[in-house]
Write a structure and sequence with these properties.
With about 260 residues, the chain is mostly helical. The protein contains nine helices and six strands.
Length: about 260
């Protein structure tokens, strides 16, 4: 049900200018079922880590994130770790403990191909614990925030419920409450903030959300190099085009 709820939310957002309310309501129902029927704002933080995980063991295969060569964009450290002008409409909670996921590189700065960084992720440090640490595929914390996203897109009727879920996650890590969700736009910004911090380096959720909301640009995703492109959609593989007797990819019709 959790995976179905995730899929139905993103299906509902194919036209973000007019999300499909039927699919949004279906997603809310499916995510609630996946959360054991727990209503908005009432999922215990003790349940957030429950879910489906990739498991690793030293005798089989090690966690590929535990690699000293993995680094973080310096701009990511600025936008995740501190209050910056990049996101003035949603100020950071300076007490949020999830910021500790980004740490100084223990072996110094990393340079190459025009890039330079002093930062990495706490779970990328190549130690024994990280090498066998599981990676979540889908956990209850994400389901709660997905439900918040779906409720928020339902407008006034769902904003209070969206806030209850988003604030329940935020309160598990920070002491400064989120502001009230008075508009869909405000709800989007703060829910995406919570997803970004909770799911950092656990999967492609951030990139999917930026595409979904039309935020895939330098205002929300800092470029590492001025020439970095922002691909608003995944390219259609040539084999798929050939199978449909198409020479070029069709234009995207979504808003």
């Amino acid at each position: 049900r959790g995976l179905k709820g995730r899929v139905d939310f993103y299906r509902a957002m194919q036209n973000r200018a007019a999300p499909d309310a039927t699919l949004l309501n279906a997603a809310v129902a499916e995510l609630t079922q996946a959360l054991g029927g727990q209503t908005e704002g009432n999922v215990s933080p003790a349940d957030f880590a429950k879910g489906i995980y990739y498991e690793f063991t030293a005798a089989e295969i090690l966690n590929p994130r535990a690699d000293a060569k993995i680094s973080a964009n310096n701009s990511l450290r600025d936008s995740v770790g501190t209050m910056t002008a990049r996101d003035p409409s949603a100020p950071w909670d300076s007490t949020d403990t999830r910021r500790a996921k980004l740490i100084p590189r223990p072996d110094g700065s990393l340079n190459g191909n025009g890039l330079f960084t002093n930062w990495t992720f706490s779970f990328a440090t190549a130690n024994t614990a990280n090498q066998v640490a599981p990676i979540p595929m889908l956990k209850d914390e994400e389901l709660v925030l997905l439900r918040a996203q779906a409720n928020a897109e339902l407008g006034a009727a769902g904003l209070v419920k969206a806030y209850a879920d988003a604030q329940s996650v935020h309160a598990a890590y920070g002491s400064i409450p989120l502001p009230a969700f008075t508009t869909v736009a405000i709800a989007r910004r703060y829910i995406l903030r919570e997803k970004r911090l909770s799911l950092l380096f656990e999967g492609p959720q951030r990139l999917v959300d930026l595409r979904t909301y039309g935020y895939l640009n330098n205002a929300y995703l800092p470029q590492e190099l001025p020439t970095d492109p922002f691909n608003a959609a995944f390219p259609i593989p040539r084999a798929e085009l050939n199978a449909r007797h198409l020479t070029n990819a069709p234009a995207c019709s979504a808003s």
